[in-house]
Prior knowledge:
Shape: rod-shaped
Low-confidence stretches: none
Order of helices and strands: H
Helix content: over 70%
Structural class: mainly alpha
Largest sheet: none
Radius of gyration: 29 Å
Amino acid sequence: MNYEIISIAIGALAGIIGTWVKMTNEVTAIKARLFSLEKQETKVQQSLDFLVDGVNDIKLLLAKKGIE
Length: 68
């Protein structure tokens, strides 16, 4: 009887440890992906800011040509 309880406890403990390791690895992968996406978002935002500046410059040039 004691051996059965010990074997069940060892199996359950191994399952818990395995699940914890798997979840830790998945969380690490998700954090890495999130960091990558945030970095890409920053690059996209910088590109959009540059594009808006260019469009504003074009608007000013067109306005100046319209005035002359």
